What does this fold into?
Amino acid sequence: PEMLAERTNGTWHLIKPLPAPARPESIDALLDALARLKPQGYLSPRELMDRPDAEAEFGFNTPKVSIMLFSGKTHRQVLIGAFTAPGDEMFLEVVGTPGIHLVSTNLLAVIPGKPGDWRDTGLLEWKTLEFDRLQVNTGSRTLELALNPTNRQWRLPRLQARADGQLIEGLFGQLGRMQIEEFITDNPQADLEEYGLATPSLELVFRAGSNVAATLQFGGSPTHS
It folds into this structure.
């Protein structure tokens, strides 16, 4: 599928196939590899004149990968075509530049194979998430926590009691370290019952005042055959 990443104010974001936080180190790895790429062979325009079917012969009629680099209103396109017979090199074309280059297949290691390869694997954007209330729903039970803006201590407003701040900060630390192992689906019409999310076993609702800033829902455990 087509993937599009955009850098704004020095920060990468995914635009396609859906808006999502990006993993900047993965995108920068590709850009760095392209910048350092040194062709191991070259077919000049003169050599290609004797090969009228060069586009098909070298796999550029149906390229394995197409990379578009945008800068303002200008862009450059890089096409990766067929592999050589040994399989350790591949043909590369910079559209608009004469000739065909031969490069190592090592470049493929930094090219994303699926949209999730460029997505941030954090559960939430913790650095920008602002909240002062937390609602914990487990089945029919609900626990509410509120942050006192004066002394920055967490309280249980329903019980009018101070909460265990160390325990709560430990929870936030654990959530901040959790990473997504696999993106299953982004389909808004997905069957939530299949994932145990129709009735989540645990729900964390982060609020800023009365506004919901983010919600985490935990469903069933995946089964492996």
Remarks:
- The chain has four helices and 14 strands.
- Residues 24-36 form the longest helix (13 residues).
- The two ends are 28 Å apart (CA to CA).
